[in-house]
Structure formats: C-alpha cells, structure tokens
Specification:
A two-stranded antiparallel sheet has the order 1-2. The chain folds into two domains: 88 residues, no CATH class; 250 residues, no CATH class. With 365 residues, it is mainly α.
C-alpha cells in the first residue's frame, strides 16, 4: 500500500509478478490433500493474490482509513493516520475489510458482548455445527450409497445439506479463530461480525448473495469489475447495461476464484461455471419478472407482501438446493467421484468424524 511513489514502481511490478507467479506455481505444483482441503486453500490463494494486485494497481492507498466503532454500535467514524506494516498486512489479507473504510456492505451488525462470553458462544457454535454436519454426513454415507436413482426431493435434501456444508465449513474455522483472537490476543468482538447473514433475508437471489451469504467476494471482484466496466468498456455508471454487466462480472470473478481452487483440488471447473452463470441469469429473470408485475399493477414497487416473501423463500430455497448439489461435486459423489473416499457419498467435514468411531464403539459393545 506504500508502493505509490514513482521510484517504487520496480517494487510494485515485482510484487505483481510475485502474485502472478504464485498463482501459476500452485497450479503446476499441486499440493497433497483432500478436495475439501485443497479447494478452499486454492480459493484463498487466488483471493489473496487478486486483492494484492487490486491494492497495487486499482485502488488509491490514500483512501484507506481505519474505522472506529462508535459507542452507539450503529455509526462508524473514520480514524485517520499513517499506516504501518501490520496495517498493510491486514489490508492485504482481510476477507471482508472489517474495520476499514472499504468494509464490505451488508455485514451483520456486531453485538455488545464481553470477550469471554463472545469466545464461549463462538466455540459452542462451532462445535454444534460440526456435530450436526458430522451426524448428517455419517448417516448419508451409511445409508445412501449413491444418488444415481435418487428422486428430486431427495436430491433437493442433499443439496440443502451441501449448502450448509459449504457454509459451515467456512463458518466453523472463523468462529474458532475469532474466539482465539479475542480471548488470547486482545482483539475486539466487534472486529468479528458473523461471517454469514440471516436466512430471513434470502427471499430473493440478490438478497441471498448480498445479505445471507458471506461478502468475501466483494473485495476481490469490485475493483477489477469496475475497471473493466467503466475504464475499458466505457459503460456509464448507473445505466441498465452497466448494472447488469457488473453483476455478471462479479459472478465471473467468483467463478475464477472457485475454479482455481477446484483445479488445485482435482475437480471439474464445469461445476463452478454452471453455478456462477446460472445464478446471475436467475437473478435477472427474478428482477425482470417482478418489474413486469409491478408495471402491470400486480405487485407494489417498494413493498413486498408476506405472500410474495414466502413465495420468494420457496423459489430461492429450491433453486439454491438444486444448484449447490452440483456445485459441491468433489465433496459429494453426484456424477463423478470423491477423491478422498474409496466409498461413501460425502467427504467428512474437515476430514474427521466423531460419530463414526462412536457408533462403531457402541456396536462393538
């Protein structure tokens, strides 16, 4: 973030080449590990490299400010000052920009809570989520050997499980890390808002991605997408074409991020392509349909009725369950295989299980 002066251009170029070479290295020198170990690792490597390139070339470092939480817990005041090396490291590695002027929009509001209570709640939440995942996956592996002849309702049920799988496989490590940071390293609970938002927001595809799901892709995609849309293509801000070009661009950046990790994990990037091309199409259909119904006087432009919301929950739930099932190919055996498993349907969360050895022990008694 300090390589902005003319005489530092060689260092800036060197840092850029290092990021690009890192991306190439991990593709040509794959690491050992299961799919659900390498896939997230690859996404983090890609995201870190792209964020560094964004900060080097597409963002103005002078616009980076620490944000100080106000006593009301609602407003945030800018705190100016010089940046040190730890600040630079934080900017380069932050997932959602929490505490910075570029913090991702739509993050859940932090709650006032003591460090001990916060750490305890995070650990209990992580353990509870792991046990639920472990039980569900162990049951599936024991009683559902294949989805080849599975009915649509069963596939939707497994799609729902895989949506929670990917959500909680991100949420659990974040909870543990936040508990350690707050309890032992003096971090503030306000610096660790929930990684995911409320399911009550997911009555449209747009709100699912902008509120219910994590906001980690914003810092990766926003700068390059805006650069391509406005600087390269010359699209005027606020226009219909510009709006949807940026929506598609954000999903394409998500595709690149997930596809890079999937290649590292030995998977097929078609799963990522289908996921991140179907969702912007569904979003466009969803919003275009509503605009038409508003124009016909059937729906209110500014307010959604309870019926509309309930229908939205059903639509988003079914669509997400179906797409997440195939998106998680590699962790679940849908059409291909699960590299980490000789048999069974789903790779255990974090490669470990408490339920399986416990049931074997109980059966042996």
């Amino acid at each position: 973030m300090s390589l902005s002066r003319p005489h530092e251009q060689p260092l800036k170029i060197m840092a850029t080449w290092f990021s690009l070479c890192s991306l190439l290295y991990f593709l040509v020198s794959p690491l050992p590990g299961s799919f659900m170990t390498l896939w997230p690792m690859g996404m983090n490597i890609f995201g870190l490299s792209v964020r560094c390139i964004n900060y080097l070339w597409l963002k103005d470092p002078s616009q980076f400010h620490r944000m100080q939480q106000s006593p009301s817990m609602d407003a945030k005041d800018e705190k100016t000052g010089t940046h040190g090396y730890l600040d630079a490291l934080d900017i380069a590695t932050t997932f959602r920009g929490v505490g910075w002027s570029f913090e991702a929009k739509g993050l859940p509001q932090p709650q006032a809570i003591s460090p001990v209570a916060f750490a305890a709640s995070q650990v209990i939440g992580a353990l509870g989520r792991f046990l639920i995942l472990d039980f569900a996956i162990s049951y599936a592996n024991a009683f559902v050997p294949s989805l080849d002849n599975a009915s649509i309702p069963l596939r939707l049920a497994f799609g729902c499980l895989m949506m929670f799988y990917v959500r909680w496989s991100m949420d659990i490590p974040c909870r543990v890390l936040s508990a350690i940071a707050v309890l032992f390293f003096g971090s503030s609970p306000a610096s660790w808002p929930p990684l995911f938002g409320s399911w009550s927001e997911a009555y449209t595809i747009r709100r699912f991605w902008s509120h219910t799901w994590h906001q980690g892709m914003r810092l990766i995609a926003e700068a390059p997408v805006n650069f391509v849309a406005h600087s390269l293509l010359g699209l005027q801000k606020g226009t219909y074409v510009s709006q949807w070009a940026k929506v598609l661009g954000n999903f394409m950046m998500a595709f690149l991020d997930h596809a890079y990790g999937r290649v590292m994990g030995g998977g097929d990037v078609v799963s990522d392509w289908n996921m991140f091309i179907l969702h912007p199409i569904a979003l466009w259909i969803e919003e275009t349909t509503r605009e038409g119904l508003v124009a016909c006087g059937i729906l209110d432009k500014d307010k959604r009725s309870r019926t509309e919301r309930y229908l939205g929950y059903i639509w988003v739930g079914v669509f997400n369950c179906w797409t997440f099932l195939y998106f998680m190919e590699g962790a679940i055996r849908v059409d291909g295989n699960v590299p980490a498993l000789a048999d069974g349907l789903i790779e255990p969360p974090f490669g470990a299980s408490l339920v399986v050895p416990l049931t074997r022990w109980l059966a042996s008694r």
